[in-house]
Amino acid sequence: MERLEIRIVEIRGKCPVFKLGDRIVIEGPGVNLKETDAICTHAFASLLPYIVALRKGIKPSELGLGRGEKAYVQCLDPGPPYTDGGTVIFEITVVRDEGEKGMESRERSSG
Question: pTM higher than 0.85, yes or no?
Answer without folding.
Answer: no
